[in-house]
Amino acid sequence: MSPAAALLVLALAPLAAAPREPVAIDTVVPRGDGSADLVLSVGDGCAGSGTTGLDLTLPPGTAVVAVGDPAGWTHRVRGREVAWTGPVADGAARWTLTVRLAAEPGERVVVPARQRCADDTVVDGPDPGLTATQSVVDPSARPRPAPVVSAEASPAALGLGLLVLPGAALAAVALRSRRRRPGRVSSARA
What we know:
With 190 residues, the chain is of the alpha+beta class.
């Protein structure tokens, strides 16, 4: 092996040996309608036995629009939870999820994940995530701050309340006494 090739192998060795996350969000593709496609992959969290299941729990306020399965896999959606099952997945398998994210741009969105393995072990975390951008969040699903209501009343509002409330009370009394006049016969009794 030439010295240049040996140097290249030594330089790339840490990258090849670096552990891959058990579950990763590889790509986030905005759809332009307030939804985004998430493309997920699995690493070797199963220590060579192979992945046979993948479970995700989406953050509150996030809605599942569509789910894509690798060949031979099926999925189940229950609220914010998506569970895939299938034959042992190879390294090329990809799971897709179209979602409406309820987040603020710049917010870190974490998606708790569980990888189920062919040898019946389960790998929890580290959980994949993404940083929300303006193009991948649903503006209508964003959390909105609660309205601020002042406990102090302005003098104008207080004066209006002092005029309106007694007037409304007098109108209610007049209406009630008008209905109860003696000597009137209603059409229901006739």
